[in-house]
Amino acid sequence: MPMISLPRRGFLGLASAGIATLAAPSHGAGLGLGFTHDVASGEPSATSVLVWTRYVGRSGPVRLTVEVSELPDFARVAGGGTVAASAERDHTAKLVVDGLTPGRWYFYRFVAPDGNVSPTGRTRTLPVGETAQFNLGIFSCSNLPFGFFNAYGHAAARDDLDLALHLGDYLYEYRRGTYPLAAVAGRQVEPASETVHLADYRARYAAYRRDPDLRALHRRLPMIAMWDDHESANDSWEGGAENHDPATEGPWQARKAAAVRAYREWMPVSDSDWAEYRIGDLAVLFRPEERLDARTRQVDLAAAIGNGADLAAALKTFRDGPWQDPAHTLFGPAQERWFADRMRAAARETRWQVLAQQVNMGITHMPPAALDWLPPGGGDRARDFIRAGIAAGAIGLPFNMDSWNGYPAARSRVLRNGLDADANLVVLSGDSHNAWAFDLAEQGVAAGVEFGGHSVTSPGFEAELGGADPLAVARGLVGASPELKWAETSRRGYMTVRLTQDRADAEWLFLDTVLKPSRTIAARHAAGVARGARRLTS
Q: Signal peptide span per the entry (predicted)?
């Protein structure tokens, strides 16, 4: 959520009361021997794709055969290989199948030595050469106890998506009864404790991957995924996290290593920290790492405000000092150099340059009238949050220091690299739980656009602000934030982006509920950019 570097443990209690009486879902099998968690694919190139499954044998490692075919009956196999599923990797198995034809849909499956066959998945390779259109489905922030993954199920039922992007917070680390205080019936997670050790993270992935809608999405589409903070711990950075206490939970580096290992075991991902994906002559999609490798610690606006009498002076000192520190980084120097070099090449060779990453880049300010959002009895913490945000906004400071807003020098370098490359930059983001459309500017020059995706289930401003009118919240944020052109702060769902030779168009889809299974779209919103405009044109 977009907060001022305040610990979330206290704020989170504002959400979730009174939703524990709903009907339980049917999760399917997912346990025992054999293929326990379906199949998945990811990180496609023009000639290859990574495929994943989990298989538990009766004893020892099991060598599985992978078959890839353009035909659903596998009458003609186009590629494959063998891979072992072993206890060392929690019985997960993944293989990169290469030698495939560009721009093709394929079916894939795993076959065990005893003839047991996995469910059949569908995947595709990326196109080469002239490409008229490519469609992305974009997801983030899927907290299972908050509700049903209806967004995944809706997207899996479509026939017009080419690739799924998951921008982080695929799962959440909290113990039961923390976030949320009470789970939707049948949506409890395992283990009951917070995920700290390798066995904890493995068990949490196993619980999430039993969800039928998530399984359907993985089975239907290849995915490019990246972690954000909750795959390890809230507000994580290279050396720690808000939700990690070394005194009771051990060294951060041990927890981080466990989180990374479990993620790479359970997700259809490679071990590369950052990568790019070429979609013909249409786009290059960049997948960065901006949480665990080189991210410096978030600046602490709450500490800067302190308890001193001169709030304005404290904020100005913070604004002109720590906040603008050029050494403050999300990417780190090596990744910044890689991104700048590859951006230049991509801008020469493709129509669009897409930075698919975790946190908002557009600048958001708290409006002076924000206290009017709160209904009577809205809560002291919500009022304190808004008051601090108003004070920060009065001198030009944003209110979410865990996003690019807290790293202005690093943000400036990224946007300047795009301008220097003459790029058509489209930034995709998640994390905030809310939906946004931004014009991005660097020193007053239009530098690109950002489509910020809302969450699959995690609550947004509607929970944090105690029932505030979402229309008033959106109007206030847009009015106080020159880069922000549209916002929706109360609904859950997913986003799509359609890339064509001359336009990039986003659509936000809002499901009617997450409190029960549903495929009903209650509302939609669209925005887009014409190539060369570098600002929203619709």
A: 1-28
